[in-house]
Amino acid sequence: MKTEIRRAIITSATLSMFKIFMNRFKRSIRELYLPERDPEYDENVYKCLNFNVNHYFYADTCPWFNLEFFLNIESIAITLKSIQLSDEDLNMFLRSWQKGKTNRQVRQVVLLTSSARDVKEILKGCGGELMDPRTTQLKFREVDGQEYKWIRGGIHIRRNDGRIAAILNNNRRYSTEDENVSDVEIEKYLEARDIWNSENSPDKWLESDFYIYVF
């Protein structure tokens, strides 16, 4: 008998009902959507899900969302909007992934932070390599499995089993291998390279959008 719920969307719930769902629900869900929550949810902190979200986890403006909860998500795809995780939190997420400790199933992550973050601080100690979008591209299969796209450039980091995560600051995906990189993308890469390669640059590379693809 099939026990997995295909999709759950929590659009409205009282505080007590939401707490019951988060703390007591046990069945596996393929896709879970948590749209923007009301301010009354701010004070509640949930450390982990008590059920599996196997394919896609989506959360928008959830003030209670924290690093420990993030590290316990084992979905294939994760989208987090307006999150308040710090540079240090995001660094810990990447380093934990690199060590193979958490988020091992993830293939695609979208992180949209509530304000700009320092890219170099997020990647500190990760051994990241900034790639030229004109010469570096990886073929990525869409999470829904229907088609392939090409991912150009980004910052590459490796997991302890050799898998690569490409971290980009835009959601541009190319349909063909020989499609030309836009001038805007090249210009942004060159500006970022100067900051990335400088140990004493007064400028910071600040971004609020992070798109991560795992190969």
TrEMBL record:
It comes from Caenorhabditis tropicalis. This is FBA_2 domain-containing protein. InterPro entries: F-box_Sdz-33. Residues 50-107 form the Sdz-33 F-box domain. Pfam families: FBA_2.
